[in-house]
Specification:
20 helices; 5-stranded mixed beta sheet; Alpha-Beta Plaits; 551 residues; alpha/beta
């Protein structure tokens, strides 16, 4: 026998053995029975077959013998067919099982919505690459991306729209990362992962220029800045990106991810829609913010906050018409801390809603208390954009007013012009809900942004508060006086009351009164006062309540 013949027979034998192992026990039994049956038949017609058939023929007719033989042959054929079909079914079932296991294995490591790697698979792959890089000292970078404004998309348009946005974000990430070939990197050295929610991570491996990660991050920012078109909807979001470099900060996946995450939050604190590359200095900032966050939470728990009240005066009579409630932090060791020191940090750390709720409830309590004492003065508070985004904010205001039995018309909510312009549709919805409760609404810091004046006429504002920056140069510059006069006239034409903040000199006051400004507020007339001092001031002069609505 030739070597080739032997190899063919050997391979054929192994193939049969493999097939036999794949069969179920039932299929094997049927095949064995078939073999035994055929073997028995061959034995019958083997040695001494003639004498057996002669004796059989003596007792049975040939016709009967033919039937027995035919039945035996049919049984053998059917058994063989049955075994073959069982074998085919079993093989198909095995193939289906293998395919299902493979599909399940893919799904275990794949994000079901976007098709990207999930965190488990991403971590395994990155750890393997980092381990190899620790030997070669190759450069790599971990990107941490978080979408800005995505919660608003979910709250406003629903999670189904949010899911579509995430899928489109994935497409844009893929397109942005395909261009790495032009930057001296390879697409096979790029891993993209959805960590969960609206957070994504990217691993860029084995590149030469240390400037490449920032360049790629900027490309991603530009890609995300383009509006997402969904039918008749045009939705705009952005993203904040943090980057951590290796080997500069080691080869440990967990540490690099933590560093990229910290850099991403720093990018958000810098105004969002930007990129921050991690450095050790960020850890110092993070520690400072962590201590301040703990201090603010302690202040809430230990009642370290206090309301001060700055009167608002009628510009014609110079009598108090309303007041603005301003928060102060009585720190046990640092003394009185002004809001411009801690409010921006509270907004970044998402504590502003808790602080804003405290201010709201304390203001409502004062309204109820003073009304009971015969001083029905309107009190205004500042509402942050974060508070305004809350779907339940109007319900909170309504419930608090009812609980403390305070009149809604004595509460005024001030919203900055910038917050109003950033999310027009959402703000309009919240304003309508709040107005239906009966509270007054004022646009604060008017003149610092670019208000949609056409939209302004459709919203339930009662007052425009002109920002103090408009008073700079008011006495000396004619163009400044023209601008302020135009805004005061605009408010009057829209049947809104005008309030000018930051009045500090007699000259400013005189000019504003001539212009027809309704109300003024500033240190010239009164600084923010503690509650007892404010009440004494009210008692010293005749109180002139501001009209509940209109001019």
């Amino acid at each position: 026998m030739g070597r080739d013949d032997y190899c063919v027979k050997h391979i054929f034998g192994l193939g049969l053995l493999s097939v036999w192992r794949e069969l179920s026990s039932a299929s094997r039994d049927v095949i064995i029975l078939s073999i035994v049956a055929v073997g028995s038949w061959l034995l019958i017609i083997g040695s001494e077959a003639d004498s057996r058939f002669h004796d059989w023929a003596v007792q049975r007719s040939a016709h009967a013998i033919d039937h027995v033989i035919l039945a035996f042959i049919l049984f053998s054929i059917c058994s063989t067919i049955f075994a073959t079909r069982r074998f085919a079914d079993q093989r198909a079932a095995n193939l289906a099982r293998d395919a299902a296991e493979q599909h399940l294995l893919v799904k275990v490591f794949e994000d079901p919505l976007t098709g990207l790697l999930n965190r488990i698979k991403f971590q395994r792959l990155v750890e393997d690459k980092l381990a190899a890089n620790s030997e070669t000292q190759a450069q790599s970078a971990v990107f941490y991306l978080d979408l800005d404004g995505f919660k608003y998309v979910n709250d406003t348009f629903g999670h189904s729209v949010g899911d579509v946005i995430l899928q489109k974000v994935t497409q844009r990430l893929h397109l942005a990362m395909r261009e790495v070939n032009l930057d001296g990197a390879r697409t096979e050295d790029v891993l993209v992962c959805r960590m969960g929610g609206d957070e994504f991570t990217i691993f860029l491996n084995n590149f030469e220029s240390p400037a490449l990660p920032r360049k790629i991050a900027q490309r991603i920012l530009r890609a995300m800045a383009e509006p997402f078109e969904l039918g008749s909807k045009s939705i705009s979001i952005s993203c904040s990106i943090g980057v951590a470099m290796s080997p500069e900060f080691g080869f440990d996946f967990t540490e690099l991810l933590r560093a990229a995450d910290a850099a991403m939050y720093h990018a958000k604190n810098d105004g969002k829609n930007c990129v921050t590359v991690y450095s050790k200095a960020l850890d110092d900032d993070a520690l400072r913010l962590s201590n301040l966050e703990q201090g603010l939470r302690t202040a809430l728990a230990d009642d370290q906050f206090e309301l001060y009240f700055q009167p608002v005066f009628d510009s014609r009579t110079l009598k108090i018409s309303s007041a603005e409630a301003l928060i102060r932090w009585n720190h046990p060791t640092s003394g009185l801390i002004m809001p411009d020191t801690f409010i921006p940090v509270a907004e970044k750390l998402n504590i502003i809603n808790d602080i804003g709720e405290w201010v709201l409830i304390e203001a409502i309590k004062r309204i109820a208390k003073w009304s009971g004492e015969g001083i029905p003065i309107k009190l205004s508070i500042n509402v942050s954009p974060n508070q305004l985004r809350q779907m339940e904010f109007a319900a909170l205001v309504k419930a608090s007013l009812a609980y403390w039995k305070a009149k809604p018309e004595l509460l005024e909510l001030e919203v900055t012009e910038s917050a109003f312009m950033e999310q027009m549709e959402m703000a309009a919805d919240r304003f309508t809900r709040l107005s239906s409760i009966g509270v007054s609404l004022a646009m604060d810091d008017f003149g610092t942004g670019y208000s949609n004046l056409a939209k302004l006429t459709q919203l339930p504002f009662k007052r425009l508060k002109l920002d103090r920056s408009l008073l700079t140069g008011l006495v000396e510059r004619n163009d400044k006086r023209t601008l302020v006069h135009a805004i005061v006239a605009l408010a009057s034409g829209l049947n809104l009351q005008s309030v000018v903040e930051g009045v500090e000199t007699e000259e400013q006051l005189s000019i504003l009164r001539v212009m027809g400004c309704d109300h003024v507020q500033g240190y010239l007339l009164s600084k923010p006062l503690k509650e007892a001092e404010f009440v004494r001031l009210l008692e010293q002069q005749a109180f002139e309540p501001m009209q509940a609505s209109g001019r």
